[in-house]
Amino acid sequence: MWQFSNSPLDEEGAEVIELDGQINIVPAFNPPEGVDKKTAPVAIPGVMTVSPQEAGTMLDTVDNLQETVDQRKADMDAISNN
Q: Is 51 in a helix, a strand, or coil?
């Protein structure tokens, strides 16, 4: 059981963990050395945003891909069991 409090419990087995006040802070992206900051990417590489309309299409694509992967796995399992 987890309990968050400003005052620790004095119970057997209780463990006090101090959290860093900076826990929710993510450092800014800095381009690698030698890259001109004026021409550096506007977004962090590997992170993208899409509109809500595009998100639905992306989820459909992912679902279709998962179905294909699952079917191929089932086909391979069927072949290897014979």
A: coil
